[in-house]
Write a structure and sequence with these properties.
about 425 residues; alpha/beta; Rossmann fold; Ubiquitin-like (UB roll); de novo design (two linked rop proteins); 3 domains; 5-stranded mixed beta sheet; 18 helices; 9 strands; binds flavin mononucleotide; binds iron/sulfur cluster
Length: about 425
């Protein structure tokens, strides 16, 4: 089985990766043998409100990058009055260096599907979609087969497992635009429109797909749900430090001796993860970018803080999707930033002026530095643009894509000017 990512953490510490590489992902019977769909059976015997309470009490937060408490989000949709509600699994996974959702979909597809069905039951949705990045051909094939198998066993469809609950799930292929990972752009895309973010509020849990209350959750978030229902909220809160419960899948990429995927608790520091699981840096450590191309730059002193929500908030940074790109001493900061600038210039959807113009101007400035023609006034302009984009952009793309530039101005200004 090839997931294009080596699993570096130990089997005994795995919850989400427990079955990955161990069972045949194309066999629903293998999943059932491993205890699969027990969470759904338990959920269907509970009141939907109790299911939401259990998820709220577990402290599970979204794993798509924004860390929003999952139970709270579900409460909004459950409480909304509507003739139709939807649940969408966000499998767009466009953040560079991020492959965890693919590993989960291709290695253990039913875990995620079980989480979606439980979520649908809890909020009262009868229809759902898995929005998968179009390039993920194997994920699309694996999830499509898993849905067909789940329908045959009545884990999906009418009167699920003898209950009064009906739920239909379909795969939608995305076109590979970074911005379609934003939940409102993703909704527009499913509606058949150009994938551009919507103005918020209203937020999707109240006004979402075709104007109906809609939950959008990440693959990894939903994969946690069957375990929480099966084992109880208290079991989940006991994993990891207070306030940051459960496990998280981190991805090691760049100049590490052993790139791959790591499932661990939040009390680990990025340095632990690089050294313990990634066998250290290939060359001396210069910086790490955590959370994809819009992620913050971590200097050596920042790498020794645990990745709890609390500590990250104190440091005014985020671990985003959990990818850790390590840059060794040979990396040129200007080249690195130019690559990031080009990526966002290309991916900006152009709907709002700060991001459309700002990403283009930042790219031009970085090009000047690449040719050794940049000046201090270019850096002043870069900072001004970045601060305006952070405040005035319509969606998280324009707001967050400036993070690495602002961090580089703090830590590598001399090196940029000397280029
Ligand atoms: C530009 C942009 C791209 C995003 N890409 C993704 C993505 O690929 N996958 C994802 O789950 N969330 C992505 N998000 C976050 C989603 O909008 C949303 O917060 C998330 O799917 C909610 O799920 P969660 O609460 O389970 O994390 C993106 C947000 C923005 C602004
Ligand atoms: S911030 Fe960028 S990606 Fe988001 S809506 Fe504006 S132009 Fe589009």
């Amino acid at each position: 089985m090839n997931y294009n990512a080596k699993i570096l953490s130990a089997d005994k510490d795995h919850v989400l990766l427990k079955n990955v590489g161990k069972i045949d992902p194309m066999s629903i019977d293998a999943y059932l043998k491993a205890g699969g769909y027990e969470g759904l059976k338990k959920a269907l015997a509970m009141d939907p409100k109790k299911v939401i309470d259990e998820v709220s009490d577990s402290g599970l937060r979204g794993r798509g990058g924004a860390n929003f408490p999952t139970g709270r989000k579900w409460t909004f949709t459950a409480g909304a009055k509507a003739d139709q509600k939807y649940i969408i699994c966000n499998a767009d996974e466009g953040e560079p260096g991020t492959v965890k959702d693919r590993v989960l979909m291709e290695g253990d597809p039913h875990q995620m599907i079980e989480g979606i069905v439980i979520g649908a039951y809890a909020i009262g949705a009868t229809k759902g979609f898995v929005y998968i990045r179009g390039e993920y051909r194997k994920s699309i094939a694996t999830i499509t087969k898993a849905i067909a198998d789940a329908e045959k066993k009545n884990f999906l469809g009418k009167g699920i497992l003898g209950s009064k609950f009906d739920f239909e799930l379909r795969v939608v292929e995305g076109g590979g635009a970074y911005v379609c990972g934003d939940e409102t752009a993703l909704i527009e895309s499913i509606e058949g429109k150009r994938g551009e973010p919507r103005m918020k509020p209203p937020f999707p849990p109240v006004v979402g797909l075709w104007g109906k209350p809609t939950i959008v959750n990440n693959v990894e978030t939903l994969a946690n749900v069957p375990h929480i229902i099966k084992n109880g909220a208290a079991w989940f809160t006991k994993k990891g430090p207070a306030g940051s419960p459960g496990t998280k899948i981190f991805m090691l990429v760049g100049d590490v001796n052993e790139p791959g995927v790591v499932e661990t608790t939040f009390d680990h520091t990025p340095k632990d993860i690089v050294e313990k699981f990634g066998k250290g840096v290939d060359g001396g450590f210069k910086f790490a970018q955590i959370g994809g191309s819009s992620g913050n730059l971590f200097t050596a002193d920042m790498m020794t803080n645990p990745m709890t929500y609390e500590r990250m908030a104190e440091m005014k940074v985020s671990y985003g999707t959990g990818s850790i790109f390590v840059a060794n001493e040979t990396r040129n900061v200007v080249e690195f930033l130019s690559t990031v600038a080009e990526f966002f210039e290309h991916e900006s959807c152009g709907k709002c002026t700060p991001c459309r113009e700002g990403t283009h101007r930042i790219s031009q400035i970085m090009e000047k530095f690449e040719f050794g023609e940049g000046t201090i006034s270019d850096l002043d302009l870069l900072e001004e643009l970045a601060l305006v984009m952070k405040k005035a952009s319509l969606c998280g793309c324009g707001q967050a894509c400036v993070n690495p530039f602002l961090d580089a101005l703090k830590n590598f200004k001399g090196e940029i000017l000397a280029n």
